[in-house]
Amino acid sequence: MSTQQLKGVIVDANLMTVTSSKVEFDVDIPSYKTVKGVYAKGKEIVAPVAMWLEALDLLMKRLSQVPGVLERLAVVSGACQQHGSVFFNANAEQALKNLDQADDLCSALKDSLSWEMSPNWQDHSTGLECSKFEDAVGGKQQLADITGSRAHYRFTGPQILKLKTQQPDKYAQTKHISLVSSFLTSILAGKISAIEVSDACGMNLWNVESRCWEPRLIQVIGTEVEGKLGPVETNGGDFAGSISNYFIKKYGVSDKCKINFCTGDNPGTILALPLQTNDVMVSLGTSTTALIVTENYRPSPLYHLFSHPTGKGYMGMLCYCNGALAREKIRDSLLPLGTSITGDTAWDGFNKIAISGAPLGADDKVKARLGVYFPLGEIIPDVGSQTRRFVVWPDDSLEEIKTGDSDAGTTNGDLWRKEQDVVCILESQALSIRERLEPMLTTANKCPSRIFFVGGGSKNIAICQVMSRVLSPANGSYRLELSDACAMGAAHKAAWADVADTTSWETFIDSKWNMENVQEVPQLAKVCDYGEIVPIFEKMESQLL
Ligand code: XUL
C-alpha cells in the first residue's frame, strides 16, 4: 500500500511472479478527489482511509479475475507507506469480526474509525510536537539512540500527539491505533493485529534495542496511548492469523491462506534483494537512498535505524535530498555554452571523464578534491542549498576554492578545472555514504560486502563504477532494474513466512534469488585508499554547519 497506489504481486515458492495487478488511487477511485493519493492543506497532508478500503476491494476483484490464482494463495503479506496511522474506535473489533457478512469493506468499516483520515509521511505540521519528543529524552542524539531516529514531522508519535492536542474528541474515541501496515494486516486477518517491529521503528515511540514502548516517550503523549497501540510483533516470519472469511467468500481466496504481519515500504524494499549482513543497496534516483543490513546498532540523528523486518538485526536507511539533479548540473556545465543534448548521449562526455579522471582528482600538487553539490537543502548533513569545493593539500589541510560560481563548473585556472567536478561529485556523494556506513559495518576493513545499485542513475555504468570504487565492496557491485521493489519485498516476505519455521531468511533468499537478474559492475582499477580520506571528508563537512 504505497502513497499513490495499491499493488498486488503474487509469486510462487521460487519467487517467480505469477501475476500482478494494481489500483491507482487518483485514477481508479476518483471519487475521493485525492491528488497523488493525498489531501494537502499547507503543511498538513492526510489520506482518506476509506479510499484504501475501496482500493483493497478493487485490487482483490482484479486479482480474482486471473483464473486459478487466489484459490491457491498460501500467505499474504504487505509493505505499506511508513509512519501513517489509522484511528479505530470501539466498533472496529466487532466490525472486523463480522466482515464476512458485509458487501464491501468500506461500508463494513465506515463506523469503525474515530478519524476518517490518516496522517501522511509528507506532512510537515508537527514541529512543536517533535521538540517535545526530543526534550523528553535530552535531545536529537538521545532520541536517535532510543528510537533509531531523531524526531521527524512524519513519525507517528508526534502525529498522535498532534491529534490528541488538536482534536481531543477524536483521540478520546480512539480505541486502537494502527500503522498503515498493521491496518492492512488487520483488514486481511479480520481482527485488530499487532504493529510489526520494523515499522514500529518509524514512530519515535519504540525502544529499538530493548524492544518495548519507551516509557519516557509514551509519557509525552500520555500513558493511555500504550493501550491504544497494543503489542508489537517481533517475529517477521509469524502470522497474524488466517485470512478473513470475507476474502474467501467474496473473492475465492483459499481457506488455508494465512496472513503474515505487513511491514513498511522501506523494510519491504530491503527484502526485495538478496541482501545479507553488510550488503548495501544504493538507489540513485532524484534523491539518493542507501539501505544496509547490519548487526551493529549505531544510530545517528542524520539517518534511520530500524529493526530488520525479519525481526533479526537491523537495517540502516540514509536518505539524501540531492542526487540526480546535482549530477545533471555538472553534466550540463561541460557542454558548450548555450547548447543542450538530451537522452543517453548527453552523458557521454561526463562518463568519459568519470572513468579516466584521476581518483580523488589527485595530481602532483593536490592530494584530493572534495566537494559539496547541493542544489537542494540536504538532510545528510543537515545544511542548506550550497555548492562548495575544497582541495586537500599533502599535509591533509583543507583549502576552500572560491569559484564565484555557485552551481556548476569553474574557471579558476589551475586549481580547479570544471572537468574536475565530474569525479569530485561522484566521489563526494559516495564518500558521504561511506562515512555513514562505516560504523554500521562489521567487516574487518569497514567496507560493504556487496553493493546493489538501483534507480535511474544505476543505468549509467560509469556512475556506478566510480561510486563503487569509493565504497570498495569486498564481494562486488551489481546493478539491476527494480520496479515495485516494496511490493516484491512483501511477496518475498510472504513466501519466506511459509517456510520460516525451518529456514532462515538469509538461507531462503540466497537459495531462491537468481543472480542472473543482476549485472555485475566491472571494478575500476583501485589506486587509492578512500578510507584515509573519510576523516578529512568529515572535517570538510563540519565546516558547512
Ligand atoms: C520513510 C518515508 C517514506 C515513506 C514512503 O521514512 O517517510 O519513504 O515510507 O512511503
Provide an overview of this structure.
The protein has 545 residues and is an alpha+beta fold. The chain contains 21 helices and 29 strands. The chain has a seven-stranded mixed beta sheet. The chain has a three-stranded antiparallel beta sheet with strand order 3-4-9. Strands 5-16-15 form a three-stranded mixed beta sheet, with helices on both faces. The longest helix is centred in the C-terminal third of the chain and has 18 residues, at 420-437. It starts with a strand and ends with a helix. Mean pLDDT is 95; it is low at 406-411. The structure holds D-xylulose. The site of D-xylulose (XUL) has 11 residues, from helix 14. D-xylulose is lined by residues 2-3, 81-83, 121, 154, 202, 264-266.
